[in-house]
From TrEMBL:
Enzyme Commission numbers on file: 1.10.3.2
Pfam families associated with the record: Cu-oxidase (PF00394), Cu-oxidase_2 (PF07731), Cu-oxidase_3 (PF07732)
Textual note on the cofactor: Binds 4 Cu cations per monomer.
Organism: Dioscorea zingiberensis
Single Gene Ontology BP annotation: lignin catabolic process
Plastocyanin-like domain boundaries: 33-144, 153-295, 395-528
Family (UniProt): Belongs to the multicopper oxidase family.
Official protein name in the record: Laccase
Biological role: Lignin degradation and detoxification of lignin-derived products.
Domain of life: Eukaryota
GO molecular function terms attached to this record: copper ion binding; hydroquinone:oxygen oxidoreductase activity
Compartment(s) of residence: Secreted, Extracellular space, Apoplast
Main localization, broad class: secreted
Amino acid sequence: MIVFYFTIVAISVSLLLPSAEAAVKKYQFDVVVKNVSRLCHAKPIVTVNGRYPGPTVYAREGDRVIINVTNHAQYNMSIHWHGVKQLRNGWADGPAYITQCPIQSGNSYSYDFNITGQRGTLWWHAHILWLRATVHGALVIMPPLGVPYPFPWWNADVESIENQGNTLGLPPNMSDAHTINGKPGPLFPCSQDKHTYALEVEWGKTYLLRIVNAALNDELFFAIAGHNMTVVEIDAVYCKPFTTDALLIAPGQTTNVIVRANRAPGRYFMATRPFMDAPVPVDNKTATAILQYKGVPTTILPLLPRLPTPNDTDFAGAYLDKLRSLNTPQFPANVPLTVDRRLFYTIGLGMNPCASCVNGTRLTASLNNITFVMPTIGLLQAHYFGIKGVFRLDFPDKPVTAFNYTGAPLTANLGTSKGTRLSKVAFNSTVELVLQDTNLLTVESHPFHLHGYNFFVVGRGIGNFDPAKDPAKFNLVDPPERNTVGVPTGGWTAIRFRADNPGVWFMHCHLELHTTWGLKMAFVVDNGDGPEQSVLPPPKDLPLC
Ligand code: C2O
């Protein structure tokens, strides 16, 4: 039996030691298959350096990071540095067949990139097939040496914690369990002690938890019994701090929270389980880890936190409304106030005929009714070297035919077509993209991730986007800035960004199932004037297909 481990949130503890002034951080990643036991079974999984979750990469803003990946596994591999902007350097972005050919078994590739203008928690994951289930880890970006965090009680000498999460399970939606830091917790069989992650805290100290939703297919709630969390950063951008008893995090997103260990010394569960407000089956089981006060005997039974109910749309909406950019003179929110290019993409699920499938049909997904077909060489190479016949630049700016997107369930065949169709965007133009969920087959929430950019989430609503009325309600002052955003079930989300990063940039639903079904496309952003505004030349060790 093959079991996929769905990583969701991992937790590990680290000391923020002042590092040497080293501006180059080097890592060696060996991709190897290793036996890991969970839920009473041992299974071989693909790992980096034999670890699940994989090693944490530490860097400071402004650093150059070089990660040499050697593939010892029998699977083709590529690694994506999720959220790193990769300015002019798509060669280091990582999605297989988008910016590079995969690293074949026995080969190596050095991902060589700079961290510019980002600080906080990002992460890395395999970006080919479903391998990110086990091949992922955190990427921690600290401020430059001597630069404080913008929160008075938070300084580089304070002990900090990374909090990542992991799930494990079976695709498509019947996972065995979610996990925290690769461990499902004691509510699952064979998971006492060794398969429970415990985070030891000292009374009176303040901790920074870095939370990554590395789950393949589930948006998650997360809470800690007895402790509030202060959200201070999302997707490696500082936000206006606010306090909450639970948080919502979609696959691909990261959230940093401050937690004070100031409650009665004891043991408290940290718990995570899915948010799902559409009629779609989901793994509802709760994964747990333990917040353990130092000196408290481990025989004490921990308390469970109250998590929102799995379909709590109201909690989700209220939580998302609290997310605002910090927007200070030092960390401004440079929201594009004018729009050069307006895009409107509908998200559709559907059934397509399939001769080789058991029941003659196959589930598909599309954007503007187009199911994306993966090319067989990297799109960035095709673009950079002008190789013809690999992709077309005719992805439509809006659906060819408008319809009542979120009306009664639609099963009619809208004539979904397949193609490797990309959208061309002028250098430095400002783009507004409205992502509209539809009731084709079913409404559902979709976390969309854009490579190469952060964007501002200027608006969100339920039902059909109204171009006459809705823009008046956009937040153009302090909208959250991020790289992954949830499109609400039966609703829409509007994002804006300035296309100042030339290259080929993937955009896709971060639910692995939907990506697989074709819910993806890519932008080709032109070069600007001269070499400083153009894609860099490819590195010598770029893998061949
Ligand atoms: Cu985290 Cu293209 O993905």
